[in-house]
Design a protein that fits this description.
Shape: globular
Oligomer: single chain
Strand content: 25-35%
Order of helices and strands: HEHHEEEHEHEEEHHHEEEEHEHE
CATH architecture of the largest domain: 3-Layer(aba) Sandwich
CATH topology of the largest domain: Aminopeptidase
CATH superfamily of the largest domain: Gcn5-related N-acetyltransferase (GNAT)
């Protein structure tokens, strides 16, 4: 999730750099509307707020600590997500003066903040939080306006991505005002029933002899699969909406950065190789499918990636992989599992629902480009 944006933030005091199936909610105006909207959109006249907006690099982690504690509590209460590791990463880069963004201050205390990172010609709004004790909608608009004005002033920026999960309100109208295309996403959660002392068998890797995936080999994740998995992701998301939401999926190099963020670096919880699997043909190095899982809090797993090679789709491999990962989590005494999915990927949503997942939160992924995509 958010700390994937932070995984390779530089600590030299400059702007952070990362090395890091479809519902478009509505269409938007032509390129340039984002900047025009910032200039002529909602008024942010001096005096409307008894608050001050400051550069995030002017603050210390100690000043931000009460606000970050509120944010961590929201993640825990609503999404069953222990956000403390992410908070520690944010504090590290704040103290290094290398996290670019802004904060709203009242009486010397931060009440909201936003940060962004740069990746080549792309800007990523990596996180935004406003204390529920204040006007979240209005302060979020103020913070986003400041961020988008900054990004819009960087000549090389051709694309801005914002996949943010707000708590208690929606960011959709604000992103729409500034010309973002919105893609509805769902955060889904499933309970993993325990067996009350009965023995639970672990997943046995090896040749699948019957059912979905028959003739393929199921194996636990190994780092030797990095390159073939990056190739799988690039092919699986070609002409897929998720490739519009996250353009790292569009190339092998981008997919490899994504994989390293969620597997090696603390990009999305603590990676769990024992609950992550690949499917491959015998005597072949290319993959037919993959499912990757992390631990996001005690007893809670999160599926960070699941995809199947186009030539193997429609054969039940996605279900086979997800069932294997859920079984592996259950054996290890996990009690819940979560994942996110694009709402328009109706086949995937139906599969997840059949396996016990229910939607507990909806949010929008926003994309703005200079070429109007």
């Amino acid at each position: 999730m958010r700390d994937a944006r932070l995984a390779n933030v530089s600590t030299d005091g400059g702007a952070p750099q990362t090395h890091a199936d479809v519902n478009v909610s509505e269409t938007h105006d032509a390129p340039g509307i984002m900047i025009e909207g910032l200039m002529h959109g909602p008024s942010l006249r001096a005096g409307r707020y008894p608050m001050q907006t400051v550069d995030l690099r002017q603050l210390t982690s100690r000043q931000l600590e009460p606000l970050l504690a509120e944010e961590s509590q929201q993640w825990r209460q609503e999404l069953q997500w222990d956000y403390r590791a992410s908070i520690e990463l944010i504090k590290k880069f704040v103290d290094a003066r290398s996290l670019t963004g802004s904060a709203v201050i009242e009486d010397g205390q931060p009440v909201g903040y936003v940060f962004y990172v740069l990746e080549e010609q792309k800007g990523l709004v990596g996180g935004l939080f406003v204390s529920p004790r204040y006007s979240q909608q209005e302060l979020s608009r103020r913070l986003l306006a400041d961020t988008l004005a900054t990004l819009g002033g960087i000549p090389k920026i051709e694309r801005v991505e914002a996949q943010l999960i707000p708590f208690g309100y929606t960011l959709d109208p604000i992103l729409s005002e500034y010309g973002f295309r919105l893609y509805l996403r769902q955060f889904m959660l499933a309970s993993l029933p325990q067996t009350n002392g009965a023995h639970v068998f672990d997943v046995l890797p090896g040749l699948i002899r019957e059912g979905p995936g028959a003739g393929l080999i199921l194996e636990r994740w190994d780092h030797r699969y990095f390159d073939s998995c990056a190739r799988l992701i690039q092919l699986a998301y070609a002409n897929h909406v998720d490739g519009e939401i996250n353009d790292q999926y569009r190339s092998e190099s981008g997919a490899l950065r994504f994989l390293k963020n969620i597997i090696i670096l603390p990009g999305c919880g603590q990676f769990q190789p024992d609950a992550s699997f690949v499917l491959r043909p015998p005597h072949e190095n290319h993959l037919a499918g993959v499912v990757l899982n992390s631990c996001v809090s005690a007893g809670v797993g999160h599926t960070t990636q699941i995809c199947v090679m186009p030539g193997y789709q429609g054969r039940g491999l996605g279900r086979r992989l997800l069932e294997a990962s859920l079984q592996a989590l259950r054996v290890r005494r996990y009690t819940m599992a979560s994942l996110t999915v694009t709402s328009g990927n109706e086949r995937a949503v139906r599969l997840y629902e059949k396996l016990g997942f229910t939607t507990i939160k909806k949010f929008a992924a926003g994309v703005w480009t200079t070429y109007g995509a």
